[in-house]
Amino acid sequence: MNLKDLYIDFFVSKGHKQIPSAPVVPENDPSVLFNTAGMQPLIPYLMGQNHPFGPRLCDCQKCIRTNDLEEIGDSTHHTFFEQLGNWSLGDYFKNEAIEWSFEFLTKVLKIPVEKLAVTVYGGSDKIPFDEESYNKWLSLGLPKEKIAKTVEDNFWIAGESGPCGPDTEMYCWKSEEEVPEVFDPEDTRWVEIWNDVFMEYYMDVDGTISELPKKNVDTGMGVERTVSVLEGVDDNYKSSIWKEVIDLIVSISGLPYEGNEKSMRILADHVRTAVFISADSIGIKPSNTDQGYILRRLIRRAIRHAKKLNINVESEFLGDIAKVIIQKYKKYYVELEQNEQIVLEVLHDEKERFNKTLEKGLKEFERVIKNGQDIDGVSAFHLYDTYGFPIELTVELASERGLNVDIEGFNKKFLEHQELSRTASSGKFKGGLAGNSEIETKYHTATHLLNAALKIVVGPDVHQKGSNITEERMRFDFSCDHKLSDEEKKQTEDLVNRWIKEGLEVIVSEMSKEEAIKSGAECMFIEKYPDVVTVYSIGHVSKELCGGPHVKNTNELGTFRIKKEEASSAGVRRIKAVLE
């Protein structure tokens, strides 16, 4: 039995209900492009909303992190990863959480106690030392020399204010060398594999700390990292998780893994992530914005590294790798098998586009060097940014002509671009529990009215494909095969505003999933919902399965205005609107 099955079975035996993984694209969190942690889809419940499955939950969540894309290629980083988690929503707390963590590590995974070490919160002038966690670890047989007290690394808060609290991190000795008697968290031979967060405080924006009336436990264990520790490998890509994929790349390229690790890791990692993004129910396609841009960048970077491995990029190597990944994960994520053809088409079509772009890039390279001059940093970066030329390719081509490349100038432009990208996307990657302001709550409710209006104006086959909400505007993606006419936009706008003026009550109720669907309630991802669901009804016009939050009456919304209507991807249109 593998780690995921062992973990879920263990926590189910402790009274937890298994919940399905949420899609990789968050449904109701506009602060991020992708779900970046196991707790993210549970934000409304960590904020106090009752979960239909009860107060004890466990799952394996699909996660994607792309803010450190350049680090992919080393032995430990991944863009897509799976995170195991167990939660207590106002139920058990530190005693049980730590006891079960210890039991799972030592009894189920059979990790020797001498190879375990932990950190606990050391205390500050505002929040005391976490003596309860410290004493619990001691009572379980962990010597005090293996319990480190830290401050910065053992306190969790989402954003600048909100629920917060100490955490305890669990480490495992990964080296063949003798385990030291005293635990040093800075010693890289100790690898963190699990984290238990105890949300017991609330921090106001002015820094004031108060105790939460309802305390939560939020835990996270990375599957890839933990498996590599358990299997005793010093490279995640040598673990059983990656074996079939790396073996296939070795076979396709005719090259050994040793000496070609970086390109093989990037190819394996990026194709796996592209498979999960393109298989997501929301229907992401490669584009130049948001999730589509990330998908395009991953596929194109994978192709570049395939070329470095001497793989014939005209072949269907991406599809071959994707099929191995789908086969490996379809037991846990049915959408991979259901959308396999879509995944293969996305990879094939983007490969074709990029191969044409590469041809254009070669022509641009010839233009840059036509006067026989060395290539300056700006031109080298233009080749990278516009035509997808990695600096290594530009240097190699220039070298063949006896020319030099201003690598320092390229790096300067690259860093400027990276800083601009990070600044521009800071709102997308802040994440956490800090969202859902009053205006965002209004926009959230407005998406339900817009969905209902489009079904009347455009047709009953309209379905929501995604949404993104900020404090300034709402964005709503929906299935539609044509550009909306001015008349359709006006009718939609007028209908939403009529419902707002009618002052329709927003009613929340819980019922079985089957009952909800029979009653006509709509939802984006039916497979992710539990047997008991939350349904929001807005007067006589809308009924949807949703996690909230919403206003209590539509008369709180103001005036609805459509600012823009455009194509999002094939068969999907996008509306940007505001409340005034």
Question: Regions with pLDDT < 50 over 5+ consecutive residues?
Answer: 424-435
Distance, first to last CA: 56 Å
SS-based class: alpha+beta
Binned, the helix content reads 25-40%
- Beta content: 15-25%
> What integer is the average pLDDT?
88
Number of strands: 16
What is the global morphology?
A: globular
Radius of gyration, taken over Cα atoms and rounded to an integer in Å: 26 Å
Number of helices: 18
Main sheet: strands, sense, barrel: 9 strands, mixed
Characterize the structure shown.
- The structure is a single chain.
- The chain has 18 helices and 16 strands.
- Helix content is 39%, strand content 21%.
- Helix 9 packs antiparallel against helix 11, helix 11 runs antiparallel to helix 12 and helix 16 crosses helix 17.
- It is an alpha+beta fold and 580 residues long.
- Strands 1, 2, 3, 4, 5, 6, 7, 8 and 9 form a nine-stranded mixed β-sheet that branches. Strands 10-11-16-15 form a four-stranded antiparallel β-sheet, with helices on one face. A three-stranded antiparallel β-sheet has the order 12-13-14.
Summarize the SSE layout with pairings:
Blueprint: H1 3-13, E1 17-18, H2 43-46, E2 56-64, E3 80-89, H3 94-108, E4 116-121, H4 131-139, E5 147-150, E6 155-157, E7 162-173, E8 190-203, E9 209-222, H5 223-230, H6 243-253, H7 261-278, H8 290-308, H9 317-329, H10 334-338, H11 340-368, H12 377-387, H13 391-400, H14 407-424, H15 426-429, H16 438-457, E10 464-469, E11 474-479, H17 486-501, E12 506-512, H18 513-518, E13 532-538, E14 542-545, E15 560-569, E16 572-579
Parallel strand pairs: 1-2, 4-5
Antiparallel strand pairs: 2-3, 3-9, 4-7, 6-7, 7-8, 8-9, 10-11, 11-16, 12-13, 13-14, 15-16
Helix pairs in contact: 3-4, 6-7, 6-9, 7-8, 7-9, 7-11, 8-11, 9-11, 11-12, 12-14, 16-17
